[in-house]
Amino acid sequence: MYVVRRILDEKWKAGKPAYVLQLDIEKAFDSVDFCALYDILRTRVNTTLANRIMSCLKEHTSILWFGQNPKYHQRKRVKQGCPLSPRLFTIVLDDVLRTLEELVSEVRLDQDAEINLPVILSFADDIIIIGDSTTVLTNIMKNLKEHLISVGLKLNETKTKMLVRDPINKSIAKQTQEINGVLITPVDTIKYLGTYLTSELCRRDTIKARCKQAIRNAKGLIPFIKKTKMHWKIAKLIYKMVISPSMTYGLNVVALTKSNRTRLRQYEREILKDMLQAARNQPKLKTQEILEGKQSPKSSRLEEYVTTVIY
What is the pLDDT of residues 46-63, one digit of tens each? Predict the structure, then answer.
């Protein structure tokens, strides 16, 4: 996500457009071709290890519960829930992308300090392509589609989403674009790896989602705080180590607007206030003062003791 943010924010500041294409692979884990997987494995590991990996996958029996057929034999796809499956799928996809890099001159997968578009980012079957024009994206998508088919994977073009960021000509973010013969209407928001990417420099959806998750986490902890009659110092440390990171992790590399930061701070105060009210020996300090790290005169020894016990 840091790479995505960095690219989009730098393009925005430079006044240049950026096109984000989110791809959908139809039934990704269920469609991997075993023959293609075996051929790819043999280029990366010795034949003995490749044979043993394939023996773990071929013709194994799975058991279903909850009123379904008790057993069935599976002769296609990687196992669901198997620790090998994500790795094997990644190996197949990496081979496809490496082949794509050889065919499309603009694509460079290994980029160092200076990142040049187009960029392809993938995490398992979550793939996005960032380019500076629809022409480049069309060329990449056309070749990628062909090579995915060669390993048993199918690109679902009807579920492909596009996000357009243009700080100067904002109307282009609504214009239908043609990518590889498919008409795609740009969307305002794309969710990638749990984070929202927007057509403008706005983090409202990301902040909102994180705050909601933090509130749910806090609500689950408050009954425990009351039941154990937890001291407010311990409740504060739990907030700092569990709740606060779920809201603020990674935001130090994100360009937030003033309203985003204000809203985030407001949620922080409200959540901490609810947790402290459930604890015993409530402090005389205000919630904002506690967030800023201020302490009451009598609390320093207890703070040191609690920190030592927790760590």
Answer: 999 989 888 877 755 555
Closest by alpha carbon to 30, among 158, 156, 183? 156
0.70 exceeded by pTM: no
Q: Which residues of 86-99 are buried (b: 16+ CB within 10 A; e: fewer)?
A: eebbebbbebbbeb
The tokens of 145 are what?
């589609």
Q: pLDDT tens across 65-89, in order?
A: 555 555 545 545 566 667 777 788 8
Distance from C-alpha of 81 to C-alpha of 65, rounded to nearest angstrom = 15
CA-closest candidate to residue 145, choices 19, 4, 24? 24
Q: Burial level of 210, CB count in 10 A (0-12/13-18/19+)?
A: buried
| Residue pair 178/184 in contact by the 8 Å Cβ criterion | yes
Separation CA 279–CA 136 (nearest Å)? 57
